[in-house]
């Protein structure tokens, strides 16, 4: 596979770096059954380097991948977010068939840290940690102001609940806290707002953080869709993305009010904390169902990776978050 990627990038090198440009330091960063990420450099004839990242789909999109968007749509989302002022890894090239790379795009490589546990605990981030929640709110306001690319789905709270309850019922699991959460959230869904462009997975772990500048890029746009702005605001507050810092509800590094103030001051709507907490609870419930499904894929033999049952055990984290939120009345 690396030979195919290298050959495709070498064909692309002159387009990215001019005649005589070469590919250097090709390295696979991550990849599953269908998606791969590669770091590489293009070095031009004068020795100047461009540090780049290739994201490609190595196999056709599986219809079972749910709401994952195509890489062409992901590229359009990156451009739209950048035009709205949000920090992104700038799009450099959207692959065409003659590149020989399949469905793929190339972005600039951004330096920083994405490991959530380091971001919430490493002394290197002490200077920026207090400002991250407000910064995240402002960035979400920018993303939500962007024009959505054509074809994105729009989802509201009750549709999301129905989708995950169906998956939960099919799993055969019987978890009293999840049962209670489904019933409570269905009865207390807030009135709908005009849908906006959502990142869909905006959380600690999908943010590139610099020790001096804070958030320098929002990554992983594959779950983007349109919906309630509080969905993105609530998702970053889910307990599972706090990496041990339950006392800091926003990503393990900040407080609710800073997030909401940053959102409002950057032009976003004035979102009540109760609405954010509703979507936080819905996010915890969704993640709990996903954890159950990951464990089930291992238990049935469909997946052999030990990562699946390890993630499956984390359903208890979501139940703790749900109990806490329900006790507070959301």
Q: How would you describe this protein?
A:
The chain is α+β, with helices and mostly antiparallel strands. It folds into 2 domains: 2-108, Phosphorylase Kinase, domain 1; 116-327, Aminoglycoside 3'-phosphotransferase, Chain: A, domain 2, CATH 3.90.1200. It contains 11 helices and 10 strands. It has helices spanning 2-17, 71-83, 116-121, 129-145, 157-171, 176-187, 229-235, 256-265, 273-299, 307-312, 315-327, and strands at residues 22-31, 35-43, 49-57, 91-94, 103-108, 154-155, 196-198, 207-210, 214-218, 225-227. The strands form 3 sheets. Strands 1-2-3-5-4 form a 5-stranded antiparallel beta sheet. Helix 4 (129-145) packs across helix 8, helix 6 (176-187) runs antiparallel to helix 9 (273-299) and helix 9 (273-299) packs antiparallel against helix 11. It is globular. The termini are far apart. 42% of the residues are buried.
Rg, nearest Å: 20 Å
| N-to-C CA distance | 49 Å
The CATH homologous superfamily name of the largest domain equals Aminoglycoside phosphotransferase (APH), C-terminal lobe
**Coarse morphology:** globular
Strand segment tally? 10
Biggest β-sheet: strands ordered side by side in the sheet: 1-2-3-5-4
Please, how many helices?
Answer: 11
Strand content: 15-25%
Largest sheet: 5 strands, antiparallel
Mean pLDDT metric: 91
Tally the structural domains. 2
The proportion of residues forming helix, as a percent range, comes to: 40-55%
Give the uncertain stretches in residue-range form: none
Oligomer: single chain
CATH top level of the largest domain?
Alpha Beta
Give the class from helix and strand content and strand pairing.
alpha+beta
Order of helices and strands: HEEEHEEHHEHHEEEEHHHHH
Under CATH, the topology of the largest domain is which?
Aminoglycoside 3'-phosphotransferase, Chain: A, domain 2
Based on the coordinates given, report the CATH architecture of the largest domain. Answer: Alpha-Beta Complex
């Amino acid at each position: 596979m690396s030979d195919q990627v290298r050959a495709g990038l070498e064909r692309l090198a002159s387009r990215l770096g001019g005649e005589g440009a070469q590919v250097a330091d090709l390295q696979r960063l991550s990849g599953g059954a269908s998606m791969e990420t590669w770091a590489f450099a293009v070095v031009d004839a004068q020795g100047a380097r461009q540090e780049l990242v290739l994201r490609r789909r190595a196999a056709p999109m599986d219809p079972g991948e749910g709401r994952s968007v195509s890489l062409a749509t992901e590229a359009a989302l990156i451009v739209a977010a950048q035009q709205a002022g949000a920090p992104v890894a700038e799009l450099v090239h959207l692959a065409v068939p003659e590149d020989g790379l399949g469905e793929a795009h190339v972005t600039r490589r951004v330096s920083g840290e994405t490991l959530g546990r380091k971001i919430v605990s490493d002394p290197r981030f002490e200077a920026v940690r207090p400002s991250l929640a407000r910064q995240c709110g402002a960035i979400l306001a920018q993303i939500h102001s962007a024009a959505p690319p054509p074809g994105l789905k729009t989802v509201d709270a009750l549709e999301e609940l129905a989708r995950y309850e169906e998956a939960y019922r099919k799993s055969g699991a019987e978890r009293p806290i999840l049962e209670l959460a489904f019933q409570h959230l269905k009865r207390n869904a807030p009135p709908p707002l005009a849908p906006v462009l959502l990142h869909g997975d905006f959380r600690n772990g999908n943010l590139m953080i610099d020790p001096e500048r804070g958030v320098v890029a929002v990554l992983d746009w594959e779950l983007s869709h349109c919906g309630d702005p509080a969905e993105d605001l609530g998702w970053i507050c889910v307990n599972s993305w706090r990496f041990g810092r339950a006392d800091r509800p926003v990503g393990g590094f900040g407080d609710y009010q800073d997030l909401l103030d940053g959102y409002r001051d950057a032009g976003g709507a004035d979102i009540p904390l109760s609405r954010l907490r509703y979507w936080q609870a819905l996010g915890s419930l969704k993640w709990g169902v996903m954890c159950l499904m990951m464990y089930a894929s291992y238990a049935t033999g469909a997946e052999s990776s030990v990562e699946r049952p390890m993630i499956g055990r984390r359903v208890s984290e979501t139940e703790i978050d749900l109990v806490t939120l329900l006790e507070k009345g959301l």
